[in-house]
Amino acid sequence: MFTAAESDPKLSKEQAGPIEAKLRTALLKAQYARLQKAQRALLIVIAGIDGAGTGASVNLINEWMDARFIRTMAFGEATPEEKRYPPLWRYWQPLPALGRTGIVFGSWYQPLLREAAKKKPDPGVIQSLAQGIREFESMLAGDGIQIIKLWHHLSREAQKKRTDDLLAHRETAWQVHPSEIKVRKKFARLRSAGELSINLTQADFAPWHIIPSADPDMRAVATGQAILAALQQKPSPIRSNFAPDNGIPKAAGGRAMAGAKIPPRIEKLDYTAQLDSKEYDTQLEYWQARLAELVRHDKFKARSLILVFEGQDAAGKGGAIRRVTHAFDARQYSIHPIAAPSDIEIAHPYLWRFWRCLPAPGKIAIFDRSWYGRVLVERVEKYAAPADWQRAYAEINQFEAQLTDNGAVLVKFWLAVTRAEQLKRFHEREASPFKNFKITPEDWRNRKKWTAYMQAANEMLARTDTVRAPWHALSSNDKRHARVAVLERTVTALEKALDTH
């Protein structure tokens, strides 16, 4: 893999000059063409052997292209703030918008490379880290981010010479990081770690390019040519890295849901369940008090709570949310009503806007509708292509697994009403001066597609009801019953997570 790069090829100044001049012009033209179309973003991942000139390549890209439309993202060790969130959280935040370019310097590859370079690496950890990278990059590629990865490489001798030459002069010594001096002692291990990491994460939608880096001109030309080829590449269908069954939960007894008939879970709810007003008042106060105690417990400081509310129009999501927040300190929670994405959100990967709303430990985030819009409204209204919403089940499960792995308690509710009850509530809203703002032409239009929405919702429940993030489908024909049930399920989930019961 590295044989050609370790031969340390060179370009003379006479050879490099004309090539570089043409490359700079072509890169600018391709960059502006990409900006005008705004169909895809370009993400350039910079990696390689320490001392191979990765920093110089980052500077070169910004110099040769229009830096106003390039965002360089340099990641070192995670800060205390970043460590409060899932590991990929910090990489989602600065992703480039469609048409723009991002350079990632220090990336999600660092944990994999560190593990692979150990004297006794753990094969299981390596496979898990590589799988996480493949899933992450596949998700980005499916949502319009083109990824190219540049591995800078040179021979052991050339790496030693380059660092020694830089150290020999006061003007350049600052460019040498201590890690670059240590490379010569463990070059073989670092080389093997790079080779293994590349092999495990090579993909058509996120290809690796080996950049010969001993000679600055050769490095510059190889870097520019790889980026130009990516900018000029026509979009092609993305083959998802998710296996067909990946992320699809098992039904009772271990039977895979994929390909099976979707059970009508919502239709089979007990819509006669109800509470009288006296019992409701008693239970409401009881469960709110228990919830208030839990979110103020010392153990909750290390966890977070994410509540997701989905359901038919007029199913009572807002009322249920208000009864839950009654137990919280207003400084502790945030509510995110999810509507159609803004232009800025549309220009980023689908899950981007949700990553930005995640709560820190000790905090609570409530989503009034959520990332499930992709497999509900976007599916039914054909805002998302079939390939996109079909892929989303596995992507959502993987996203939620990252949240719960990081300590979040994720509780998901589907509040359900019968078609007759919904019609009754629509008419009540129209007649009430205090509620008629809640009824819109869109509500009536969605009602006409009741069957399609029920089919989508039942499939969503079947394919994203996981052990770590289960769905709670609740009858909401009686709002009092639903509100108490939401509080009870939330308390039970928190007590289990905090081990306080």
TrEMBL record:
The UniProt record lists the keyword Transferase? yes
**Domain of life per record:** Bacteria
Q: Give the molecular function GO annotations.
A: polyphosphate:AMP phosphotransferase activity
Name the InterPro entries for this protein: P-loop_NTPase, PolyP_AMP_Tfrase, PPK2-related
Q: Which GO terms describe its biological process?
A: polyphosphate metabolic process
Against SUPFAM superfamilies, the record matches this protein to: P-loop containing nucleoside triphosphate hydrolases (SSF52540)
Q: Residue ranges of the Polyphosphate kinase-2-related domain? A: 12-233, 275-497
What keywords appear on the UniProt entry? Transferase
Q: What is this protein called?
A: Polyphosphate:AMP phosphotransferase
Q: Which organism is it from?
A: Paralcaligenes ureilyticus
